[in-house]
Amino acid sequence: EKLLAVDQHAADERVALEKLEHALFCAYSHDGLEVRMTKRKLLGHDILKQSAVYPPNRVALSTSQVQTLRHNFILLQKWKFSFEKEPRTDDRSIVITGLP
What we know:
Distance between the termini: 52 Å
Strand order of the largest sheet: 3-5-4
Largest sheet: 3 strands, antiparallel
Strand content: 25-35%
């Protein structure tokens, strides 16, 4: 015979954390995604809020930083970073207009 003991509260917290991670780190999960936490529900758009950057801040980037920014652009927008426009390959700077 075997006895299996499960900490139900810890298991519930782990599931909630995994859903929260999915909402934050999956670029294609939608902002209306509902994350059920132990005591409340969160919608994807309620997890992070955006603050405007005034005046907008121009940041110079290296070529590899531009490539990384372009590769992760959707995810950065999901995390409430906003930019004047998506950077072009030949543009080595970006204007930040909003931060989480």
